[in-house]
Design a protein that fits this description.
The complex is a heterotetramer of chains A (113), B (323), C (586) and D (375). Chain B starts with 15 loop residues before the first helix and ends in a 7-residue tail after the last helix. The model of chain B has no long low-confidence stretch (mean pLDDT 87). Chain B is built from 11 helices and no strands. Chain B folds into 2 domains: 198 residues, Cytochrome c oxidase, subunit III, four-helix bundle (Four Helix Bundle (Hemerythrin (Met), subunit A), Up-down Bundle); 51 residues. Chain B has 323 residues and is mostly helical. Chain C is mainly alpha-helical and 586 residues long. In chain C, helix 9 packs parallel to helix 11 and helix 9 packs antiparallel against helix 12. Chain C has a two-stranded antiparallel sheet with strand order 1-2. Chain C has a domain of 70 residues. The longest helix of chain C is centred in the N-terminal third of the chain and has 36 residues. Chain D is elongated, with a radius of gyration of 30 Å. The chains are: A mainly alpha (113), B mainly alpha (323), C mainly alpha (586), D alpha+beta (375). At the C-D interface, helix 4, helix 6, helix 9, helix 10 and helix 11 of C face helix 1, helix 2, strand 7 and strand 9 of D.
């Protein structure tokens, strides 16, 4: 344990309580990208070109969309470390659940029966 | 920025900074929970999508992609407006804040309205497993098929009389089998979904049960041949996942309306209270995000065409008198 | 032994005040505290005071513990005879299901976070309240609503698929109220999420000056780890029950093999929550033990960092071991290996804790009031529980022990032998602070000993029965197992008496108990530096902390400190100098 | 209720090769745990007494020791990992049957609430499994409704039986005897009745069992009727169903000759011409005297037996009857008013055997009252 005897008053400092209100520019640019990607997703969905890769492509697009949304519209880019940690842990644990469960279904019949 | 923040500090906080940071953190944690919540459903979906890709694509082909596409854009725009709302709140422009909240609410309501219409159409088409009854069209199609089966059965038995020995026995067996099958009662959902899929031009699959049992030799395996029961499985996911999303939407719309009222009452004149708008916007963005993933997983996996989508949407909102 | 010698920190500041003397009986009688500053019924039902909410949890949880206990009693009595002594088959199934669901969802999960967590997390970190007081109240009522669903399904005929609710039995073949129970689980789970969220926010944002992570009491660390699990695991259970409910309503479903569903998937989703859930149950208990052991051995915890981080370690790795419930369920062999390996890893932090606790006692000056006896009992019983867990986490040995009484015994050794005794320890430890009254020393010690004896007698024989292959959830069984069951039932009876005793002497202490005083145990936690019962807002001024939580190393801390042994003037042994007028009656 | 408490052995019987390997690991873990727990308890006791509160003795100020932390992190971890490795290898053994086991594959169907066992040869039995000793065998199972679990403690073997899937285990039984068969996965009301017996037979006995003539001599020397699942057991059921028993019975009334031990014996009969001849009681003879009883009538008996045409007794049934009659040894014929056939599940012989063979029979629990029972 640390032994500096000066009280830490970290939680009491006036931290940046308001995200600096960037000029609406970035917001609109981000939004424009999101909408374009949505349109692209529809286009991919309606075309039969990609075949089995259609879903993969669309999910990739969705991830990009979500990223932009979180980063610019939800101001994650200005958020503090803890917020990042929380958001990351949510995604991380979900991916763990996916990883293990799907592993079961993909390896279930290896070496057994 | 922090300097000109004014507003009441709750009894148990020491200063505004602590209070705002806490509220914000709480909301982010709640969203981490939500990620896990939908993550669970998505994982279950993924498992079955891996098991039965063709059937899930068939199920997707039976959905109303027209409404879904329009809804996507509605939701995206609402995402923009709520962002503008929070920007307005930051700079304490309460008039603009009110406008944007109102706009967002309306977009949300529009989404829900269309969604309701979509569910209603699913109901009309009889796409609710174990609840729906045979749709008229499905009824006559099924009746015709069964009649054909029965006739074929009779023909085989008659033919059997002309033959002799094992050959005759074989024919008779087959005839009896076909007639027995013709006598079986239909599974309403399965027949309905076959009809709906037959309307989808882009979809070229045949139901496996007809493939295996029906008259004539099975045609060459098709990329989209599907098993109606697995399609039921898909629809269970469709209903539970969109249902959960709609539930979140309804809650969101409720909160938005409430905040709109508060705005009009001047609750947000203390600009420190922007944080409530902010967490609201986070929630709303999250709901939007979920839809971004539901769209490709549920609606866009199956074969569709843009024309069909437009057609469907027109039909949904009654611009054309059905087919 | 080799120890890292750290000198007692010298203070380089001058505290303003020396602590107030104990209040005179006069003051004690007249001062207003959180119990009596308002008295109307509504002021209790609608309170946002974390301490009152904690008390409401205490009452509710105790009631449900009695319900669950009655169900357990029925089960045990029935098993006296190989043919089933008193219950029909379906009645028995409903009895053990009621026992399981009530004890897990309505007692073990809410008990320590709900009562001690609510009450003491803010006080121990020097906060005036939880981060979200209203949310705190809401989560209590949400929990109450969920609980009422459990009660309702009990009233309208009970539930029989067992607390694990495995489909397809629960969704297709059980004619009992699975839907109500599912709803109950969903709602109580939601409450558990909110509580966890609240505690995390509180720990992050509400700590008083100087209360750095390295100076937090270990109970806070444990509660923090618990809350992380609650936050990230519970939603998956919620969605699982939702899907099961959809399946039951539509009658055709996601976990139903007849249309291509896979019942094993339910087990994955269920255990993704329910295995971490056992850590939700045990971690707070471990936290309590740290407080009690250090206090009654008058020592620093041995290896603060190790104990703190082992809590976090358990919380994290605990997420990745759920598959060891499914070795034989048809789960893939290779995935099973991964899970078995991680299970062995998660066993280590628990071992670390046990060793550290034992080492904490070394060189102490140990006294044995009721809380300490419970705590020692915890270590003894939890050790057995943890070690027998190794048999079940080892793939090979799990084959034979899976779903036998060995599992039952193991589970109860961790949950009852661990959690239940930690709860008793915590309750007896903080009771004087919560109520301001001291209970009977004799009866409390007697009760502790009776509980421990009864418990050991109940569950030790079940290990043998389990190794012989007696399956769980059997209303009747081959007679060769009868002797073990009779022993168990005898033990259960003793245990029952043990659990009833506190209800009486604690209640009695409210009326006849002597005033406890501010700090009866001479403990160092911040919560002990304020009068008992505390004021409505805990601290009049924000306390400041200057060094770690367990400075009992200073012989009889308070007095010597007051004599200026450390620094110039008074500071409590844990370095908290609470501001002026905390202790004077209003 | 307390009348007969059988004092059990502490350890379950060890009746298969896997059980032997299993117990090795089990006792290894036990040894380690007893040692580790012992250390903790010893320290705990020492501290509690040595450092109990004394006047004037101040507690020491010990904050911890990185060295000790490392020791008690790493040492347990090493042991735990040995458990893991050994355990994983054992599990590997349990789920990977050798080729000869695969060639000898039994099948079990779990059903609320009974086990149906099918032998590689197609023989079927309920809640009982007769298997040969010293011969590897594989059991594959599936369920007709909910998840069950096919567990045999004596073999330390267990596997969940999941609807819509095939799961399996394999045994190499090493000790003859009768052992418990449990359903270990909760499956509803009758869960605790979903139990049975595993009979490990010598190779020759198992051959007899498949031939349908397997008899197990009880300790008291008496022979019970044929075992459930065998052909002659089916024959026995027919023997009652067709009311043969009303004349051919233990009491051997004046109406019909006893049939005990006639197989292969020379017998004096009157043919339809009325002259007495000697005929060896071959299968064909027995068949004929069921189809056309008046053809050869046993000396000294009236030709009153009704004929049983193929409509009443199919050829396969007839075969079962013959096997039963051939299997009858002196004193075997049931009494006229004996109750059979065996109730589904608890087969009569499984119990009557277990009464003598195994001191701890599965009791017949109270039957479920409400519906939802047998589907």
């Amino acid at each position: 344990m640390d032994h500096d005897h000066h009280p830490k008053t970290d939680v009491h400092t006036e931290e940046a309580v308001v995200h600096d209100v960037a000029a609406p520019g970035p917001t609109f640019v981000a939004f424009f990208f999101i909408v374009t990607l949505a349109a692209l997703a529809l286009f991919v969905g309606f075309s039969d070109g990609l075949g089995p890769w259609k879903l993969t492509a669309n999910l990739a697009i969705a991830c990009v969309q979500a990223g932009i949304l979180a980063f610019y519209l939800m101001d994650l880019r200005q958020a503090d470390k803890v917020t990042w940690l929380i958001a990351a842990s949510g995604v991380f644990w979900t991916s763990l659940f996916f990883l293990f469960t799907l592993t079961d279904y993909l390896t279930r019949y290896l070496g057994v029966l | 920025m922090a300097a000109n923040v004014n507003g009441p500090v709750a009894h148990h906080f020491n200063n505004m900074g602590q209070q705002l940071a806490t509220v914000r953190m709480g909301m982010w944690m709640f969203m981490a929970t939500e990620i896990l919540f939908f993550g669970g459903a998505f994982c279950a979906y993924a498992v079955y999508r891996l098991m039965y890709p063709k059937d899930f694509e068939a199920g997707s082909a039976a959905l109303n992609v027209g409404i879904a596409s329009v809804n996507t854009f509605l939701l995206l725009f609402s995402s923009l407006t709520i962002t503008l709302a929070i920007r307005a709140a930051y700079t304490s422009r309460t008039k603009a804040l009110g406008r944007y909240l109102c706009l967002t609410t309306l977009l949300g309501v529009a989404f829900l309205g269309l969604k309701a219409r979509e569910y209603h159409m699913d109901y009309e088409e009889g796409l609710i497993p174990n609840v729906s009854t045979l749709s008229p069209e499905a009824k006559e199609k099924h009746a015709a098929r069964m009649a054909a089966l029965a006739a074929e059965g009779d023909r085989l038995e008659a033919e059997a009389k002309t033959k002799s020995g094992s050959e005759a026995a074989e024919l008779r067996e087959r005839g009896i089998e076909l007639k027995a099958r013709a006598a079986q009662p239909p599974v309403a959902f399965n027949e309905n979904v076959k009809v709906v899929l037959s309307h989808n031009k882009a979809f070229k699959g045949r139901p496996l049960d007809e493939q295996t049992y029906d008259v004539g030799t099975p045609s060459a395996a098709n990329a989209h041949d599907y098993d109606p029961f697995k399609v039921q499985l898909f629809f269970m996911f469709y209903y539970s996942m969109t249902g959960l999303h709609v539930l979140h939407m309804i809650i969101g719309v409720g909160l938005l309306t409430w905040q709109y009222v508060l705005t009009r009452r001047g609750f947000f004149d203390h600009n420190a209270r922007f944080v409530y708008i902010e967490v609201m916007s986070l929630y709303w963005h999250f709901v939007d995000m979920v839809w971004m993933f539901l769209m490709p997983l549920l609606y866009l996996t199956g074969p569709h065409t843009a024309g069909e989508a437009i057609e469907m949407f027109k039909k949904s909102v009654g611009m054309t008198g059905g087919h | 032994m080799a120890v890292d010698e750290v000198p007692i920190p010298k203070l380089d500041y001058t505290p303003q005040t020396i602590p107030e003397p104990e209040p005179t009986p006069e003051q004690a009688r007249t001062r207003r505290n959180y119990l009596n500053h308002t008295t109307s019924v509504l002021s209790w039902l609608l309170t946002v005071d974390h301490k009152r909410i904690g008390l409401m949890y205490l009452v509710a949880v105790t009631v449900f513990f009695l319900f669950g206990g009655i169900a357990a009693g029925l089960v045990r009595v029935n098993l006296v005879s190989p043919h089933g002594a008193i219950l029909e088959l379906d009645q028995y199934n409903k009895a053990f299901t009621a026992h399981g669901t009530i004890m897990l969802f309505l007692f073990l999960i809410p008990v320590i976070p709900g009562v001690l967590g609510n009450f003491f997390v803010p006080m121990m970190i020097g906060a005036k309240d939880m981060a979200f007081p209203k949310l705190n109240l809401a989560s209590f009522y949400v929990w109450a609503i969920g609980a009422s669903f459990f009660l309702w399904q009990l009233i309208v005929g009970g539930l029989d698929p067992g607390w694990t609710l495995y489909p397809p039995y629960s969704t297709k073949y059980s004619h009992t109220n699975v839907l109500y129970a599912g709803l109950g689980i969903f709602i109580t789970g939601f409450s558990s999420i909110l509580t966890g969220l609240n505690i995390i926010a509180t720990v992050h944002k509400m700590r008083c000056p100087g209360m750095s992570w390295g100076r937090m009491p270990l109970f806070i660390w444990a509660m923090y780890a618990t809350s992380v699990i609650q936050l990230l695991a519970t939603p998956v259970l919620a969605v699982t029950v939702t899907m099961a409910a959809v399946e039951k309503v539509f009658g055709v479903g996601i976990f139903d093999p007849t249309i291509g569903g896979d019942p094993i998937l339910f087990q994955h989703m269920f255990w993704f929550y329910s295995h971490p859930a056992v850590y939700i149950m045990i971690l707070p208990g471990m936290g309590v033990i740290n407080e009690v052991l250090t206090c009654f051995s008058r020592k620093n915890i041995f290896g603060y960092q190790a104990v703190a981080w082992s809590s976090v370690g358990i919380a994290l790795v605990g997420f990745l071991v759920w598959g060891h419930h499914m070795f034989l369920a048809g789960q893939g062999y290779y995935l099973g290996m991964v899970f078995a390996f991680l299970t062995m890893l998660v066993a280590v932090p628990s071992a670390i804790k046990v060793f550290n606790w034992t080492a904490t006692l070394y060189g102490g000056s140990i006294s044995f009031p009721a809380p300490m006896i419970h705590a020692i009992g915890f270590i003894v019983l939890f050790t057995i529980g943890g070690l027998t867990g190794l048999y079940l986490g080892t793939m090979g040995t799990d084959i034979h022990l899976h779903d036998t009484y060995f599992v039952i015994a193991h589970f109860h050794f961790t949950m009852v032998g661990g959690m239940m005794f930690a709860w008793q320890a915590g309750l007896h430890f903080w009771w004087p602070k919560m109520t301001g009254k001291m209970y009977s020393d004799f009866w409390s010690r007697l009760a502790a000993i009776v509980m421990i004896t009864g418990f050991a007698l109940t569950f030790l024989p079940q290990f043998v029965a389990g190794f012989q292959g007696m399956p769980r959830r059997y209303p009747n069984y081959p007679p060769e197992f009868q002797v073990y069951n009779i022993l168990s039932t005898a033990g259960a009876t003793i245990q029952g008496f043990g659990y009833l005793m506190p209800v009486f002497y604690l209640t009695a202490s409210l009326f006849f108990g002597r005033a406890a005083g501010n700090n009866p145990w001479k403990a160092t936690g911040l919560e002990w530096q304020v009068p008992s019962p505390p004021d409505a807002h805990n601290f009049k001024d924000i306390p400041e902390v200057y060094f770690g939580p367990y400075e009992y190393g200073v012989p009889d801390g308070l007095r010597l400190v007051a004599d200026g042994h450390l620094g110039k003037k008074a500071v409590h042994a844990n370095g908290a100098h609470t501001g002026a007028g905390v202790t004077n009656g209003s | 209720m307390f009348a007969a408490i059988d004092l059990p052995t502490v350890l379950p019987p060890q009746a298969s090769e896997f059980a032997r390997q299993y117990d090795l690991l089990f006792y290894y873990i036990t040894a380690v745990c007893v040692f580790g727990g012992g250390v903790v308890y010893a320290l705990l006791t020492y501290c509690c007494f040595r450092f109990a509160k004394k006047e004037g003795v101040a507690p020491q100020r010990i904050l911890g020791s990185t060295k000790l932390e490392l020791i008690w992190t790493i040492v347990p971890l090493i042991f735990f990992l040995t458990f893991f490795v050994w355990g994983a290898r054992l599990f590997d053994v349990a789920i990977n049957p050798p080729q000869e086991a695969k060639d000898n594959e039994f099948f079990v169907f779990g059903k609320q609430w009974m086990w149906k066992v099918q032998h590689p040869t197609g023989e079927r039995e309920n809640n009982a499994m007769h298997i040969p000793v010293n011969r590897a065998m594989k059991v594959t199972g599936t369920s007709e409704d909910v998840i069950h679990d096919f567990g045999i403690p004596a073999f330390r073997s267990k596997f969940d039986v999941v609807p819509g899937r095939y799961t399996s285990a394999w045994y190499y039984p090493t000790k003859e005897g009768t052992y418990h068969l449990f359903c270990d996965q909760y499956c509803g009301q009758g869960h605790s009745q979903m139990v049975g017996k595993v009979h490990v037979l010598s190779q020759s006995d198992y051959a007899d069992f498949l031939a349908g003539t397997y008899r197990r001599q009880n300790p008291d020397g008496s022979f019970p009727h044929p075992v459930d699942g065998s052909a002659s057991w089916r024959g026995r059921k027919l023997f009652f169903k067709l009311n043969c028993i009303s004349c051919h019975n233990k009491e051997s009334s004046a109406r019909a000759p006893s049939l005990e031990g006639i197989a292969g014996q020379e017998r004096a009969v009157r043919d339809d011409a009325g002259k007495t001849i000697n005929i060896k009681a071959s299968d064909e003879y027995i068949a004929l005297s069921i189809r056309v009883p008046t053809k050869h009538v046993r000396d000294g008996w009236k030709p009153i037996m009704p004929a049983f045409s193929t409509r009443q007794v199919g050829e396969q049934e007839l075969r079962d009857l013959i096997l039963y009659i051939k299997s009858l040894k002196p004193g075997d014929l049931p009494s006229r008013n004996e109750y059979t056939p065996a109730p589904v599940g608890g087969s009569v012989d499984a119990d009557s055997l277990s009464q003598q063979q195994n001191p701890n029979p599965i009791p017949m629990p109270p039957q479920p009252k409400k519906e939802g029972g047998t589907k």
